[in-house]
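Study this:
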Amino acid sequence: MFDDAPQNSWKDAERVILEDFGKTPEELFGVSFTGEPGKGIMERTARASASVAQVHWARLVDGREVAIKIQKREIAQQVGWDLWTFKLVSRIYTWLFDIPLYSLVPYISERLLLETDFVNEANNSERMADLVASESRLRGRVYIPKVHRELSSKRIMTAEWIEGVRLWDKETLTRPWQGRWRQGSPGCRGAPLDAPNRQEVVEVEVIRNYPSKGHLKPNRDWWKGVNGKGGLGVSLKDIMQTMVDLFSAQMFLWGCCHCDPHPGNIFIRRLPSGKPELVLIDHGLYVQMEPEFRHQYSLFWKSLMTFDNKTISEIVRGWGINNPDVFASATLMKPYTGGDGSTSAGIKRTMSAKEQRERTYEMQQQMRKGIREILADEKKWPRELIFIGRNMRIVQGNNQYLGAPVNRIKIMGNWASRSLADSPDLSYGSKLMNLGRHMLFKLVMFSTDVLFYSSKVAQIFGRKSNLEDDMEASMKKMVGDMGFELNHNVFEG
């Protein structure tokens, strides 16, 4: 789905290793491709393949199992052509539709190029591991795989191998646990990778059959039981709560945001307690938020929750945005009903009912005007919003796919408000004042619970759509009234 792109030949992968390290895979990783005793083993066939790189499994001579991410040799040239095309299309759109898109190209291009720098990815990964470890609300719920720097370069990244269940596999996530009581899934918090008394047999089988097998990694499905129908037995609500908590902390508390959280980059493991552990991989695409912008963005989100239109307007106009309503709707991914409604009212005042239904050219012009007002002052407009919006849309899609088990907007609003009291770069007085305001904010948020649980009750009584579905439908209607079609596929990673 997200990791089944065509993979390069082993010869190409081997060449990248040789070019970056001046060593063969056998020399670098201490492996043997002939089953030589006292050596590690490595698969020539990739376990996963995406557009930029492919991942090979290996067991090093010291017993560590690793994921070796090898960049595809043609990517540097391909990215160059893709960015050239992107610049050209942006220039054309800017000229044809009078929308200042081209000014965003340098920032977007820089971020996308960083995805091909695995040293940057290793830096992001290690920083995120440190941040998670420092936050008590996430420590023990989120795991970032360790990077082996001595076996990594700009085009090779070696990290610990993770055994887990992908986010898209709802059945395996929720089916009853058939492993040992009070034991995690393979590799989680010290749980053994292989079934008891199985490790030695696996080693012998792997070495004996090595030359004839493409995949050598042992099958770790023992926890599914004899019939193979077991699962992690974890709660989808707990999974999504952890996910929204993690990415909210990244945006509002740390200012260090992972911008590609699609299901292929998330593994779920079972903790010994029976709770889920979220494992986040692929840390290439990040945005870093300056403290001032992060504080403004937190206050903006808090103000959205409380319909504080004066504060919303002050913040977004400081960002060079002249249409708070449209921008608020784009942020929430649903029509913002707390504003003055000037955008939609203006469109409907100038259009007849028949013209609204037909989505005429004039309506499209009004929408373009709205977009131009969002990008009114392109020098002030925070470029980080592009990728933050991408993160939020993908997380919304994840929640939607799992049946909207959590109130995503409330959770984000709560983190936005609380971060203004927890941020280490604010003065003690400011943090104390914001903490008092946060307590009042918690009371206001009760109204969002009423909407959320009303939607859940409707689902129990047979309603097929969930809250995220309803929000998306409302957003599509609003955008449709303006003469456009909303298509979220571009955010799916």
